[in-house]
Structure formats: structure tokens, C-alpha cells
Amino acid sequence: MLNESAFVRACRGQEVPHTPVWFMRQAGRSLPEYRKIREGIGMLDSCRRPDLVTEITLQPVRRHDVDAAVLFSDIVVPIAAAGVDLDIVAGTGPVVAEPIRSAGDLDRLRPITAGDVDFVAESVRLLVGELGDTPLIGFAGAPFTLASYLIEGGPSRTYLKTKAMMYGEPQLWHTLLARLAEITQTFLRTQIDAGVSAIQLFDSWAGALSEADYREFVMPHSAEVLGGLADAGVPRIHFGVGTAVLLRAMGEAGADVVGVDWRTPLDRATEIVGPERALQGNLDPAVLFAPWEVVEREARRVLAEGRAAPGHVFNLGHGVLPQTDPEMLTRLVELVHLVSAR
Ligand code: CP3
């Protein structure tokens, strides 16, 4: 049934009745019902409660009629399960109490088993029961993006400490990324075994790297994650921000679908990525703050450029911004369905 959904079919480059659409960060602060249910409950605590995860994941599906749900969780959930002391601070993001900067620090990052993230499997099972014919997307952070938080200790603009380790201590770097790849693969496998219809690997900050450095220091580890899941048969989406020069390599890492931010038009992206892979994207999330006429014009342009790709999943070029008017998202879903109806 889910294999016949417009979302999964588009990921596989098969014909679809309409272009499927979902939004990164569709569950979250743009929704008043989310802000209400989260009152007084920490972000990580809410990720560990299957009842809350289920409700928050379903909220945008009910409201917007999107073609897929995305599991409510965070990329740092598996590294917290691996023993790293961290918190998600509102308005800042993940903050790591003791950053990982030396070989000795690696002891604080042990492998995980499915049992360490049983709350995620339970959430997925509950959601699959509730969602019926709407597919559920599972996700994880890619080794580079996770490493950047672990090494910097929090968000960064320059990735200075991350790159210092990458260039200065390549052996330590590769050991750390290999360990993160293993954790990430277990985390994704747990979600697949519990029933998600697709997975997305978020390498949000990989755009900080040149193509050569990406291929040498990062791609082998992301390829380990994606390649290790090839047998599962669910579409694998690979996404990052500012990745215009990396799109080809990110596809080659083992993706079925390459996520594209708003900087690269999708027809150009398909030339770079090649004809074997579908694309996801790529309306600028800031466009949703413009008058509706502009949103409509831009969405029509994205749909037209997306026709060059073998399959197109409509999305924003990055996550929904917290200040977004949810009504704009609902109208956008309606428009995408209407304009793309075959
Ligand atoms: O709807 C969805 O997309 C599912 C939920 C989701 C969250 N985080 C929930 C969340 C997903 C897919 C993520 C992934 C994630 N987390 C990424 C990759 C996606 C991207 O945006 O590039 C990254 C880099 C993180 C790390 C992280 N966690 C950041 C940068 C932040 C934002 C900090 C802030 O407050 O502005 C978080 C916190 C976070 N993750 C929130 C949500 C809903 C906000 C915290 C809250 O609601 O209290």
C-alpha cells in the first residue's frame, strides 16, 4: 500500500498522480498546537515519549494534508543514547557538555543497540498504525554534521575546531566518523525495522566543505551508512544546505533521492546529480513570508524545474522557520497538488 503512495513512487522515479509534498521541520514551532503540547517539557524528554512523538508527528499531517509524515525526533537523540551528555537549548540547538577533541574523549561515545532507542521503535510502530496510507519518514544526522556538534560543543559558523581535527588529526577524525556512522546506521535500521517507509540522512552542514574534502573526509562514512541500508529497500534521501558543489557526490554516497536547497534550481541540480536519482526540494523557506502571489509564482517555478528530474518530491530548501504562518503551508500543499495533478 505504502509502496503505491505518491511519495514513495516519486522517490523511485515512478509515475505519480501528483507531485508529493512534505516539509522539513513540518512538526514544530510554527504550529500553535505543537507549542501547547510542548509546554514545560524539554525537547529531548519529548523525543523519548512515544505518546508525545506520535501526537506531534501527526499534527502537521492533519493540518496540511502533506503526502508524508516525518518522525518527531532530533539528530542528537542517538548520540545522547550513546552516552554523550548533551541538551537541546531553545533558540540555540544542541549543546554538548564536554566536547570530543581527543582520542581519550572517544570513550564517551559507545556503540548503541536497538534497545538504547526502543522509544523510537515504539513511536514508529504507534505512528504506522495511526497513519494508514500516509508514509512515515525516519531520519538521522550524518556523521559530519553530528561530528560538528560533538567537536564544537554546539552550533558553529566557521567549524574551526571540526576542521582543525579533520586536517590536523585525520586518524582521530576517521575513527570518530566511523563510530558515528555505526551509531547512525543502527538508529536508522531500528526505524526501518519498526516500519518507516523512507529515511532521510541530514548532512545539514556539509556545505562548509569543498568537494575534494567532502570526498576524502566525509563521503566514505556517509556511504557506509547509506550503503549498509541498501538491502532494506526503502528510499534513502540525502540532504544538506549550501551543497551545490557536493550534489553529485552526495548522490554517489548511496542516495535514491538528493535533497537540494534553494540556491540550485532543480533542472540544474538534475544535470549535476545525473538521471538515476530523484530530487527533493527546494522552495526558499523565506519565500513563505512574501505575499501569496510570490509564493505561488515561486512554487510553480520549482514544480516546472522539478520536471527535469526523474522524480520530484516537493519540499522547502531547508526547514520551516518557526515564525512561518502555518496557513501558508496549508495553501502551498493545496497548490502543489493542484498544479501538478496529472
Ligand atoms: O518536523 C520535522 O522535521 C521533524 C523534527 C526534527 C527536529 N530536528 C525537531 C526539532 C528534525 C528532522 C530535526 C533535525 C535536526 N536537528 C537537524 C537537521 C535538519 C536541519 O534543520 O538541518 C539539525 C541540524 C538539528 C539540530 C537542532 N535541533 C537544531 C539546529 C535545533 C534548533 C534550535 C532552535 O531552537 O532554533 C534543534 C532543536 C529542535 N529540533 C527543535 C525541533 C522542533 C526546536 C526546539 C523546540 O521546539 O523546543
UniProtKB/TrEMBL annotation:
UniProt superkingdom: Bacteria
Tell me which Gene Ontology terms the entry assigns under biological process: protoporphyrinogen IX biosynthetic process
One term under GO cellular component: cytosol
Q: Name one GO molecular function term.
A: uroporphyrinogen decarboxylase activity
Task: Identify the metabolic or biological route this protein is part of.
Answer: Porphyrin-containing compound metabolism; protoporphyrin-IX biosynthesis; coproporphyrinogen-III from 5-aminolevulinate: step 4/4
Site location (Transition state stabilizer): 74
Q: Which UniProt keywords apply?
A: Cytoplasm, Decarboxylase, Lyase, Porphyrin biosynthesis
Decide whether keyword Cytoplasm is in the record.
yes
Q: What is its EC number?
A: 4.1.1.37
Q: What is its main location?
A: cytoplasm
Annotated positions binding substrate: 25-29, 74, 149, 204, 318
Cellular location(s):
Cytoplasm, Cytosol
Q: Which reactions fall under this protein's catalytic activity?
A: uroporphyrinogen III + 4 H(+) = coproporphyrinogen III + 4 CO2
Q: What sequence ranges are listed for the domain Uroporphyrinogen decarboxylase (URO-D)?
A: 20-29, 137-153
Q: Which PROSITE patterns match?
A: UROD_1 (PS00906), UROD_2 (PS00907)
Query: Has keyword Cytoplasm?
Result: yes
Which SUPFAM superfamilies is this protein grouped with? UROD/MetE-like
UniProt-listed InterPro entries: UROD/MetE-like_sf, Uroporphyrinogen_deCO2ase_HemE, Uroporphyrinogen_deCOase
The protein's assembly and partners:
Homodimer.
Q: Which family does it belong to?
A: Belongs to the uroporphyrinogen decarboxylase family.
The record, for NCBIfam families, names: hemE (TIGR01464)
Function, in words: Catalyzes the decarboxylation of four acetate groups of uroporphyrinogen-III to yield coproporphyrinogen-III.
| Name of the featured protein | Uroporphyrinogen decarboxylase
- Taxonomic path: Bacteria, Bacillati, Actinomycetota, Actinomycetes, Micromonosporales
The UniProt gene name for this protein comes to hemE
